[in-house]
User: Fold non-specific serine/threonine protein kinase from Photinus pyralis.
Amino acid sequence: AAVGIRREVDSTGRMIVRQIKKGVRDFSFGRILGEGSYSTVYLATDRQTLKEYAIKVLEKRHIIKEKKIKYVNIEKNTLNRLTEHPGIVRLYYTFQDETSLYYVLDLCNGGELLGVLKKTGTFDVDCVRFYGAQILDAIDYMHSRGVIHRDLKPENVLLDDQMHVKITDFGTAKLLSDPQESNDTGSVNRSEIQGRP
Assistant:
């Protein structure tokens, strides 16, 4: 089972942190929200709190067969690093059973930005500003934490209930040293960043 944390205020008014263990039995699984090349994402409800999440289920056998272990670890490590920004899908818990790995993530009921774009055809200037500012803010935060996404596209930009951006799918991300966890100046070594237009 995974260990998560819950912040609470005790009887004296002090903030305390409690550890919470979660596993498959703690969630009620619902409909499929989406399918990827090596995962399926389900709507799930925490049986105790009734909070809804998206749970990404990754089949271990398929991950090993397709040699995707590296990408699964990159995604988990990246999401664990990027927990403090509202524009990035949050990873709450991870756990596993004999056959699968489970990532408990933010539920984004607004769907993909791509779906909204297909429905509207084009975005007007105000809409471009609205989404563009949020995406750029999230990218700035990622870069400040030493993360290069490398696969940012409309289908990897999810929308929450209020149609705000949540960037997802960090399986191909590049993790550089995290300036917030080191004693250096926080500058990114540009020689570490490689990419093609």
